[in-house]
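User: quick one - fold this with pyridoxal-5'-phosphate bound?
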Amino acid sequence: MKVDPPQAQSFAPPLRTLMGPGPSNVSQRVLDAIGRPTIGHLDPQFVVLMDEIKGLLQYAFQTENNLTIPVSGPGSAGMETCFVNLVQPGDTVVVCQNGVFGGRMKANVERCGATAVLIEDEWGQPVDPNKLEAALVANPQATTVAFVHAETSTGAQSDAQALVALAHQHGCLAIVDAVTSLGGTPLLVDEWEIDAVYSGSQKCLSAPPGLSPVSFSDAAVERIKSRETDVQSWFMDLNLVMGYWGGDGVRSYHHTAPINALYGLHEALVILAEEGLQSAWARHQTNHEALAEGMNELGLGFVVPEAARLPQLNSVTVPDGVDEAAVRSKLLEQFNLEIGSGLGALAGKVWRIGLMGHTSSAKNVEYCVGALKDVLAEA
Ligand SMILES: *Cc1c(COP(=O)(O)O)cnc(C)c1O
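Assistant: Sure. Structure tokens for the protein plus pyridoxal-5'-phosphate:
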């Protein structure tokens, strides 16, 4: 025995108001659910819970897709699950990039041994459907289109329905990142005919991070089943995962599901169903408008043009001469309030104020505007 136990005690986190790009605040109801007794992951009662989670996710995604499950891992694991299953070596994938997460899609494509054709839009702008169409015309060999519905790095929302329609017109399947949109802004997986979509538990669903809801259309499932090569990731191979989450009632061991985390996701989805999707979308919009009014009073402008603004993620410009990091530190220290910094092309230039899920309330808008006002007056 060479290693002594370190000096460590139970961790008592501070009580923060989480108004960054995620995680959002988790309600006491969800925290209580996570604290309930652990049962076995093949327990008949756990199987009942799994089936309910599938149904609740189908509601949240507005889909009848049978393959609608939470991947055991954060949003990035859902992203990777979509790419490794739908993309084969030698494929061509058109990737739309208008922020950080499009860049990660490109990296995923390349790690699958495929070629990424990147179309780029300015950070803060939505994806331009004309550029996608031109890329599809120029690359008739493309099999897949990938884009981010709600770019959390900038706060821009793209027209998912139009982009998916273009993909289909050119014989491609569409992979959509809906990590930040699910539960916060309209996302209609069946109506928009999305083939593969992934999200995250910690943004507008307000469950803790670590689970990634995904959904696959029949066309996507067909492609997965008829692959010529094995999925290079054993853990994310949906052909295997389906044996555990499969809809026919027979469950075989694949990996041990994060049982208590799934209690939390289930509760968060029950809360969403109780409120109703349309009411949740409307609440996000109302609170966004109130925040925009407050920012206007403080003289802070928005990065994204009004028509493409996400209600749940607001990028506002840092005034000239203000140290943006110092302001965020003061907000955290004096107000227990977390907001986000700019990433990539927007680093140092913007703050990202999240109004996601449980965090999206009139009270939090007022708190944030008041706190920023105080801190900016000092700066
Ligand atoms: C947060 C986020 C991700 C990654 O999710 P993690 O849970 O951090 O892995 C991917 N895409 C978008 C648009 C996101 O906002």
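One thing worth noting: The chain has a mean pLDDT of 96.
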